[in-house]
Design goal:
Layout (H helix, E strand, L loop, with lengths): L6 E4 L9 E4 L10 H11 L7 E5 L5 H8 L4 E6 L2 H14 L4 E5 L2 H7 L4 E6 L7 H8 L4 E11 L9 E9 L2 E8 L5
Length: 186
């Protein structure tokens, strides 16, 4: 029986520019498109030197590895699907990404148990499963004073009592945003 070919996604910029990450097929896994990643990292300022990042629902890990490629201090990548998690470990090894901490666990369990503060959080949960509301409710206690959250969703986000949307765009059927805690919630 022939070995199944893995899918690939390319890192856009930084130390690992043009390196390919391999990942298996998995239900709900949608790598963030290259042009969306370019826009997001333009919004974030390209150089993430010294930033601690969290990639929830990491999937391919491309957002986290892209952050490390752009000098992030560290990235925690959280992925529940075992085969996808194993592929991320292989990519971490291939890149020699010592500052990547890859965890095989549920995102909500991670948020419940972890006490770290992060400067940038990437959130791209499976669509149509109600994850976003649950995750956004827990994120404030995990953000540094100037922390921002990248959110990819099947719908546009709007400001609410906790979060302020300060950048947003749409690519195809994907809405993507940078949000931060409202000034009066800090």
């Amino acid at each position: 029986m022939a070995e199944k070919k893995l899918n690939t996604v390319r890192i856009n910029a930084g130390e690992w520019r043009s390196r390919l990450l391999k990942f298996p097929d998995a239900q709900g896994l949608r790598p963030t498109p290259e042009r969306v990643r370019q826009t997001v990292f333009n919004w974030l300022g390209q150089d993430l030197t010294g930033k601690k990042c969290l990639d929830l629902f990491a999937g391919t890990g491309v957002m986290g590895f892209e952050a490390l490629s752009r000098n992030a201090k560290s990235v925690v990548l959280v992925e529940k699907t075992t085969a996808v998690y194993r592929a991320m470990l292989d990519n971490k090894s291939m890149l020699k990404a010592d500052a990547a901490h890859v965890l095989n666990m549920d995102a909500l369990v991670f948020l419940d148990k972890n006490q770290e503060l992060f400067d940038v959080v990437f959130v791209d949960p499976p669509y149509h499963q109600g994850w976003l509301d649950k995750v956004l409710a827990q994120l404030p206690k995990h953000l540094s004073a100037q922390g921002v959250v990248y959110v990819e969703a099947e719908y546009a986000l709007a400001d609410d009592d906790t979060w302020q949307v300060f950048k947003q765009s749409k690519a195809g059927n994907v809405f993507y945003h940078l949000i931060k805690l409202r000034d009066d919630t800090n």
